[in-house]
Structure formats: C-alpha cells, structure tokens
Amino acid sequence: MKLYTRTGDSGLTSVKGGRVSKDDIRVEAYGTIDELNAYVGQAAAAAAATGQMDELVQELVEIQQELFDCGSDLAFADPEGREFKMTDEPSTRLEHWIDAHTEAAPAITRFILPGGSEVSALLHVCRTVCRRGERRIVTLAAEVAVNKEVQKYINRLSDYFFAAARSANAKLGQQDTEYVRSAEVFRKRDK
Fold it and tell me: What does the pLDDT look like over 90-133, one tens digit per residue?
C-alpha cells in the first residue's frame, strides 16, 4: 500500500460522504483532535518512562482510542441520521478520573503555571490543545450538526488533563508553581 494518493494535491481532502477543502472547519476540528492525540501519546510515553504511573498510562491510552472515535464522528460531511461512536459513558468516566486525580493532588487556591515534572508539563500541553480543539468544534457546531457527546467529552477532557497534570506532579514529588500575581480563585475543598 502506498501512503501517498495524490488526491489531495489540489487542496481537497476526503471526509465521510464527500470532499472538502483542507482548511474546512470540519477538517480543522478533527485535525486538532488528531494533533491532541499525538500529544497524549507523548504524555503517555513520558509517564511510562517514570515506571510509577501505570494507571495514568492506561487512562491516556483509553483517551487516545476515544479521540479517534471523536475524530470519526466529526468527519461526517452530513452527520444527520448517522450512528455515532461517542456516547455519554466516556464523559462520565472522565468525571470519575478527574475526581480521583483531584483527590491525589494538594488543594490549590491560586492559578498554577504549567510545568513541574515532564509528565505534568506534557499534560498541560494536552489541556491547551484540547481547549483549541473544543473551540474548533464549537465553531463547527454553529454551522452544522455535530455529535453533542463529542463536544461534551472534549470539554471534560481538558479538565481531566488539568487534574492529571497536578496529580502527576504530586506522585512524582514535584510541587506545582503558583502564578504569583493570582488572586485566590479556587475555593478550598472540604475533606
């Protein structure tokens, strides 16, 4: 099988049910999700290299599978009446993971700077790319129908990356760095 097809040389690409410009908002949306998936893979590799984060690696690999499902759902030229891959179950699971990661990290009251350990820094990159993907999906949803479960999942996912980044630092004994000019913006959680 050849990897090059030459069918995109004119600036068009195939989506499920047609061809569109390579800068079409649909391509921007699922392309950003694909970019996010690559960063998640990098974060999983860094987490695996620590030898201390098997559970996080498993979560990230599952997220990569779901990001492919999100991209698939976004790639329909006409999504009306389609059977989508993403349901509400992955978002609900993310909420449980967010809660667990939040409990594993010390309480915060101020904004924090992305960084600390390599794993945490990479998870913060995932968070910001995820937010960009969400913005692209919102733009797409204003023009055409999209699977609302994808939009919900990507919204939860950015919160997951924040919580996972903080718990990764805690697990590796690395403190988060507070943004020194931040007011206290987070309420202290009840124990």
Answer: 999 999 999 999 999 999 989 999 999 999 999 999 999 999 99
The confidence score (pLDDT) of residue 29 equals: 94
> Taking a C-beta distance cutoff of 8 angstroms, is the pair 44, 67 a contact?
no
The CA R_g of the chain, rounded to the nearest whole Å, is 18
Within 13 Å and on the Cβ side, how many CA atoms surround 136? 24
Q: Which residue has the tokens 């950003």?
A: 32
Question: Can you give the pLDDT at residue 18?
Answer: 66
- The answer to whether the beta carbons of residues 83 and 147 sit under 8 Å apart is no
96 Cβ contact partners less than 8 Å away, ≥ 6 residues apart: none
Its pTM stands at: 0.90
CA 134 – CA 154 distance, rounded (Å): 6
| Spacing of C-alpha 52 from chain mean position | 22
Domains, the chain, in order of start with CATH, read: 17-178 (1.20.1200.10)
